[in-house]
Specification:
The protein is of the alpha+beta class and about 550 residues long. The chain is about 45% helix and about 10% strand.
Amino acid sequence: MSLRPQPGAPPVPDDTVRVARAAFPRGNPYLLLRERLGAVFRDGDFADLYPALGQPAYAPWRLALVTLMQFREGLSDRQTAEAVRGRIDWKYLLALDLADPGFDHSLLCEFRGRLLEHGAGERLLGRVLDAAREGGLLKARGRQRTDSTHVLAAVRDLNRAELLAETLRAALNEVAAAAPDWLRALAPPAWFERYGRRIEDMRLPETGAKRDAYVARVGADGHRLLDALAGSDAPHGLSTLPSVAVLRRVWARHFERTEPGSGGGDAGDDSGGARLRPVQGRGPGDRVETPYDTDARFRTKGGTRWTGYMVHLTESCDPGAPRLVLHADTTPANVHEAPRTAPIHDALAAKGLAPSEHLVDSAYVSAGHLIAARERHGIDLVGPGRRNLSWQSRDEGAFGAADFAVDWDGRAVRCPEGKVSAGWAERAGGPGQRGAIRVQFRAADCRACASRARCTRSRSGYNGRVLALLPRREHEALAMARAREGTAEGKRLYAQRQGVEATLSQGVRAFDLRQARYRGLAKTSLQHIATAAAINLDRIAAWFAGRPLAPTRTSRFAALAA
């Protein structure tokens, strides 16, 4: 398909205007958006996604708008194409004649594919934000807030035995499509019974010796297939198939080979057996959870366990303006929030939307983040520092690190009782590590101190108090942030962060944010970008219509306390 960009979006046909206004005398969000924002997108926004020669393409500005409307209403591709053909309000926003037949639903999938291929998904959100900025609804250097929620992958959770068997089955299916004759000659009859249908539909052996024997047999079958694919008589290109690459990764993690004749293989198989490796945990790493979405990862957080992704939403929260989602950042589930603070700031700065104040929770805050945000982008990162887990921070009256006076130039620390430290050792931070300072007080001073019980619990009596400090810049930045937390102004400012919870709730309840529609990180990220843009359209329409924010719900029983 080729694209011949039009200079601008066409006007709404007169018949469509007349019927739409008659059908919606009290107004409609899509009619209001068209009247106040115009068409939002232009063909030129997507000109580089199409070749210069070929059959004329359907107007991409319309496909972009339809994509956002689809995500706003949670429709499938077929339902979306039907809505374009049958709904008057959609025809009004898209400037279509009442008799326009619309397009085939497959164009939506093709359009998303073009966005992914060219890394252009961000344009869906960016152009909506540009329109809001042009309309005076969004200002630069405002106040913003960020939080995250978990996203369930569009796959079934598998236990270890199911993962192994389903991974082999997925590889067999892809090899069967690419080289059926070769695989027919290789596969023994038992494979067709063992892997001919989905593993979840089969009755696997219960735990115990039969289960172990089944897993060992699956491992031996996988090794046999991998050996055959590495052989000289295997058809070219089979070993590079995506499912074969996944099989190789999963087998390397879960199995080790055993000698031929040690069990696990079928009769006549001299390729050796397989033995399960010890369980290696499900923390950060390269663990594949399902062969059908190799980007999805397992995580446990706050008592919630899931396989999938995390999405971080950043929204504006300036008074006198709608709250608009400015950035959607999607990662595998096992990526912690802290490494995303700097990329989020970089992305906002690239859009020209770096905030003056950024409200976040403690997961996004560290001393290094406070300094980097201020120095790189002029951002005041507002959030509680990581909790101090020492017993001194929990016991009232105990001497915490904040009670000690640090003389950075003299490389010494004075305790609350006036004693000066005797040792100062600095450790430089390596790649990915921060530096640290270890301060040691004299054991004799601590033994004779009347406040010893409030300061240290060393039982031997031969060790003085030891303080662990960050380097000076990090220490002072964190101290200033913690000091602001305790002030009335600091508490009032940080209280505004809680409003982002309403955005997450709206995204989950009204836009299905927590369930991935597609498989893979790239497609799931595109889904979240389109969802963020759809949320913005909904909020801009509400702002134009004068619809106020819903009040916080309070149960009738809780209201009695007031």
